[in-house]
Design goal:
The complex is a heterodimer of chains A (421) and B (341). By secondary structure, chain A is an alpha/beta fold. Chain A contains 20 helices and 13 strands. In chain A, the strands form 2 sheets. In chain A, strands 1, 2, 3, 4, 7, 8, 9, 10, 11, 12 and 13 form an 11-stranded mixed sheet that branches. In chain A, helix 2 links the parallel strand 1 and strand 2. In chain A, helix 9 packs parallel to helix 11 and helix 12 packs across helix 13. The longest helix of chain A has 25 residues. Chain B is built from 14 helices and no strands. The chains are: A alpha/beta (421), B mainly alpha (341).
């Protein structure tokens, strides 16, 4: 073969490759990386949902990538932002979303609500307000839905119905009754009324349910170092003295399962984990968090965020979020995960209705949704959360008086707020 | 060319300017690859970190704030607490690692049955990933379900709270002995001491192996001479082994101190990875929050990169100062074999 022929064949091959390559590129779907934190069976369930979306939307390919827990995912997102290569879509915990918003790396979801492929008035009315509230942030002085709500979990009370029945006690519905039950069921070194890993959540629940506030109106100062705050701290001391077992991390589940504690308060999602190990020891009771002068429970959630990407990708990402937020998908996800639905219509879905009949937790969750409030969601909150948690721990372990602990936490909070502002 | 005597005169060597320049540059060219790596991955990050520390830097670059981050961090009591925790951690790990490492090396240097098996078993913890070690030892020291407390309870004892206990170890000992420990002298928390125990267990194998390497350098004649002179085992250890191993001890103490200052994995994993009840790392009550964990928290959890970087630069200078001090002070006492021959 002559040199000329070889050169000709080479040029022809290149031209053909370029032509078919361009044709293939024109046909190739818009690829969206979806970084998420759903492990195990929940990860599989999410992947199945994504697979269904991909098969129904040939022009878009969502690629789910598991990135570990919320902290690990946040670290990877931080590194990706620094490298100027964030994923198109990521599941973000509200704690960290505030940081992304402050750094202007997220596209506010609300931008898509009124567009040609936006949300109908019916859709908007169907979204659970608490879910929207979790996804709403202060953007230049205006409350804006920045991320798309996906998971909702809230604080409930777990109890051992047999222990309560044996002692002739009713399920406590107020904090005073709760304290009485703890005292009544406590047997020295044998049984505790309440198993509790001291943290900020119970403090917030108690504070809010007694009319207290964490901060002043313009978020410039701590407001929990007042009479109500002190009353709450004193209540915690009383609770510990009356028969609360201080646990570490998730150990409270172990104490409840092994019938060494009668009551616990934690996220509704814990139910599945407790029941997995409970066997036929007893039927786990679930009730709303007790009330003070009013009802209050902390609600959390994770949401999907769209990072700053080009128009084509952001439209595709919104298409995915809109799809996964439809009643059918919301009901499917809720049924598998134990998280509460983010749409009211999902509660009417046969899948959830069926679960509501057998699963009291869902009924309790629906009831609690009406008064549940999220934790604060501004940038400095994780630091303040840590300061208050330390104060609660110090009081629970008897290392500080309630006054000292509150004063200390308030000073730290004010310093953090000063730095943040 | 020949001179008059017919001796061929050697022409003066005049290299070309290019060759001369190349010869001059040659050592630098040889050093260049290593220097490039050193600059890119070590020096540049330090300088860039210093640059970041002068800015209000979150996820992205912000405005220049001068030394503001340094002022803030130096005014934060938690930073000083974290430094104190770091010193406690260094003091409860490095001396024990050195002592036990030397002890095991001397024992394993002798002719004992199954010596290689022992050497392997001492080294095994060192090659086990720290995260796995942290999880397993976290279970072992679990207050409710841990095997240690299980045994203590079985024997009728009162189970310590281990990783949950923020009280100082000296205060706990004082309570046990009925002695009141004054404020400020409480010592590290039991939680931190528990982590130190696991740290020593992890690193002692490394120290043993390095000491074993040092022991093999000692000429056999010295041991034989000492034996003839009637020296007992202790005197052999005191006057032969200890001085000859002093360069190894200096090396291990410097490396161990730097390592302890930079420790984070084990502490982070064993204290619940930020989930330990308090909602932040350093549980319980910040008594296990060492300086690097403080920096980590500000960087990853609070996303205050500029502030965290100021902490990192301060820690860099502290480690540098301590390493130089160790070399200067201990260096005088180091005996090198062959010195003074």
């Amino acid at each position: 073969m002559s040199k000329k022929s070889i050169v000709l064949i080479g040029i022809l091959s290149l031209l053909l490759t370029a032509f078919f390559g361009a044709a293939a590129a024109a046909d190739s779907p818009t690829v969206l990386r979806l970084w998420h934190l759903q492990a195990g069976p929940l990860g599989t369930a999410l992947e199945e949902l994504v697979e269904d979306f991909n098969s129904q939307h040939p022009g878009i390919e969502v690629r789910p990538e598991f990135m570990g827990d919320a902290t690990a995912l946040h670290q990877k997102i931080m590194a990706a932002i620094a490298a100027n290569d964030p994923p198109e879509l990521a599941q973000v915990a509200e704690t960290y979303a505030a940081n992304y918003i402050a750094e202007d790396v997220l596209l506010p979801i609300e931008n898509f609500f009124d567009g040609p492929n936006g949300l109908s008035a019916e859709d908007r009315a169907d979204l659970v307000p608490t879910a929207l509230k979790i996804a709403t942030y202060d953007l230049e002085g205006r409350d804006t839905v920045v991320v798309w709500p996906f998971n909702i979990s809230l604080e409930v009370m777990f109890y051992n119905p047999e222990m309560l029945a044996e002692a002739g006690l009713a399920v406590p519905s107020t904090w005073d009754e709760f304290n009485d039950v703890v005292r009544s069921l406590h047997l020295d070194n044998e049984r505790w009324g309440y198993a509790w890993t001291p943290d900020v959540v119970l403090f917030i629940n108690l504070l809010r349910s007694h009319g207290g506030r964490l901060f002043n109106d313009d978020l410039s100062e701590a407001a929990f170092n007042d009479e109500i705050g002190l009353e709450v701290m004193n209540y915690l001391v009383e609770l510990v003295d009356n028969g609360t077992m201080i646990t570490n991390g998730f150990d409270w589940q172990f104490e409840l399962i092994n019938e060494r504690a009668a009551l616990a308060t934690n996220t509704i999602v814990s139910k599945a984990y407790i029941e997995a190990d409970l066997g036929d020891r007893f039927e786990l009771g679930v009730a709303p968090i007790p009330a003070g002068s009013k009802r209050s429970a902390v609600v959390w959630g994770s949401a999907f965020g769209i990072f700053q990407v080009d128009d084509e990708k952001s439209r595709a990402a919104w298409e995915f979020l809109k799809w996964i937020g439809k009643t059918e998908q919301v009901a499917r996800w809720s049924a598998v995960s134990g998280y509460l639905p983010t749409r009211y219509s999902a509660f009417e879905d046969p899948l959830i209705k069926e679960q509501m009949e057998v699963n009291a937790a869902l009924r309790v969750g629906l009831e609690t949704l009406e008064f549940a409030q999220p934790e604060p969601n501004f940038v400095a909150w994780p630091q303040i959360r840590s300061a208050i948690s330390n104060a609660v721990n110090a009081v629970a372990l008897g290392l500080m008086t309630p006054e000292q602990a509150l004063r200390d936490a308030a000073q730290k909070t004010n310093r953090i707020l000063l730095m943040a502002n | 060319m020949q001179n008059n005597a017919g001796v061929k005169r050697r022409e003066a060597f005049h290299p070309s300017p290019f060759k001369a320049a190349l010869d001059k540059a040659r050592p630098y060219l040889y050093l260049a690859p290593a220097a490039l790596i050193l600059f890119t991955f070590h020096l540049f990050p330090i300088v860039y970190g210093g640059f970041i520390s002068l800015h209000q830097w979150g996820l992205k670059p912000g405005k220049m704030v001068g030394l503001q981050n340094y002022k803030l961090i130096l005014a934060d009591a938690e930073w000083w607490d974290s430094l104190l925790n770091t010193f406690y951690y260094v003091l409860t790990t490095v001396p024990l690692e050195l002592g036990l490492g030397m002890l095991f090396a001397v024992l394993l240097f002798g002719k004992i049955k199954g010596r290689n098996l022992y050497r392997l078993s001492y080294f095994a913890p060192y090659i086990t990933p720290l995260a796995a070690i942290g999880v397993v030892w976290g279970w072992v020291f679990n207050y409710n379900t841990g095997i240690i407390n299980g045994v203590i309870r079985m024997l009728g004892g009162s189970a310590p709270r281990w990783l949950l206990e923020p009280t100082g170890i000296l205060t706990l000992l004082g309570r046990f002995l009925g002695v009141k420990i004054p404020f400020g002298l409480e010592g590290p928390s039991l939680a931190l001491v528990t982590i130190s125990i696991v740290t020593v267990w992890h690193y002692v194998g490394f120290h043993t192996v390095i000491y074993l390497g040092g022991l093999t350098q000692i000429p056999k004649e010295l041991f034989e001479a000492a034996k003839i002179d009637g020296a007992n085992s202790f005197r052999v250890f005191r006057h032969i082994i200890l001085p000859i191993l002093s360069p190894t001890t200096l090396f291990l103490s410097v490396v161990g101190t730097i390592g302890a200052f930079q420790s984070i994995t084990l502490i982070y994993v064993m204290t619940g990875m930020g989930w330990g009840g308090a909602g932040a790392s350093g549980h319980p009550l910040g008594t296990t929050r060492v300086a690097l964990l403080y920096i980590f928290e500000y960087f990853f959890t609070y996303t205050q990169t500029g502030y965290a970087m100021a902490g990192a630069i301060l820690l860099f200078f502290i480690i540098l100062f301590l390493s130089l001090l160790q070399m200067k002070v201990a260096g005088r006492r180091v005996f090198y074999l062959g010195e003074g021959d």
